[in-house]
Amino acid sequence: MAEKNTGRLLEQLIAFIEEGLVIPVIGPELLMLDIDGKTTLLYSYLAEQLAQRLEIASEPADTLNAVVCRYLSQGGQREDIYPELKRAISELSQVKLPDALVKLAEIRPLKLFVTTSFDPYLAQVLNQVRYGGLDKTRVLDFYPGSKNDLPVALKNLKRTTVFHLFGKLAAAPEYAVTDEDVLEFMHDLQAHDSRPKRLFDALVMQDLMIIGCPLVDWLGRFFVRIGNKYRLIISRDKTDFLVGDQLQKETNLAEFFQHFSSRTKVCPMASIEFVNELHRRWIAIHPIPPDAESDEDEDESQPDENETEAGLGEDDPMQSGAVFLSYAHEDQPTVLLIRDAFEKAGIEVWFDRNPNALRVGDNFETKIKTNIEQCSLFMPIISGNTLTRKPRFFRAEWKHAEQLALRYPDSIRFIIPVVIDDTPPDAPNMDEQIRKLHWERIQDGQCSSAFLSEIKELQRVYRRDNG
Asked: What angle (nearest 5°) sits at the alpha carbon of residue 332, between those of residues 329 and 67?
């Protein structure tokens, strides 16, 4: 129900936060940016930019969904949308980070942040506020077909973590832009074999602070229900707090909660106004020391408590004869483009979607080695990022592939290095065996038709020869 005494509600919420009982669920209404001297919401800016990039007309009040619907109605392809959005956000690299996110990051007991947005700003803010700008926030994302989940139960989570519930920014269509995307994500989030179990366990057990998520009537009801173990009308185990600009317009939704979910508190404030007041009250009780240092001096070589390889999110099983892509995690955006080009050409691909995760125990290494032994082609993706002197897991993949290549006759191409920048074969710290092989050059992830045809034929021959 809508709360009249917002002061009392905020005091209650702060008490829950102090006890570590709250998970914030953050939406795009908090993403207010100063772009070219104009203060605007990120998604409104992106809607305008997307229309310009797709060369279609736009209206001042357009949402991303409206722009996409107009583009599709004119014969456009859905796959065009996602790389254009990625490029639009990449051009905002110098923009000041959203102040509302900074204020939430300063509330230190909040450890797990769930976001319904696809942009990278929440993780960037947390890195800036809590880690002195170091890239130490764990970032996870769900998308249809994935099995990504929290690495451990919430109580054992040590690192600040961001979970993108509706996918994160990429050139591939793996994040929600349209209403239809959201519907598909919600469907998969409920599927028994793909739902992130640890995340949902956390959402059910903790009080949710849902801020700035534009929850239309049906989505708001469904969203709150999946965060409760029991029917809303009988649920008494937790309190959820809802705040949003769009929420103020959803009178039917507020009435629904009033009648059927008395433990769901709807705050009659705008999203950013609410964050400002919550932060003001929090800092009054918990002032930030003027010489405050990084929130945690974590040893990145150590896993969260009870973390296992299985907890890092199960990768999709590899089909025998797939092409194995091995890469440094910094190159994932380009690797996704290569993956997309391969799959569009009918080439089956496998790669570890989380190459920067901790690798714990022998199970993971056994799994990776098995996949390499079952692949038709091993493709090390070479860039300046693979020349690092630091120990990295991709080198273990390369070494195992090199050992496996010794079993093949010289006439069989098993390892096909692909370089995606101007890194030369004689670069320092380059693997000696990889250095000697013929390299294919792919600029900006754009594969030539000749290269795709060659890889597809090699995969076909492998499967013919190996039954």
From this structure: 145
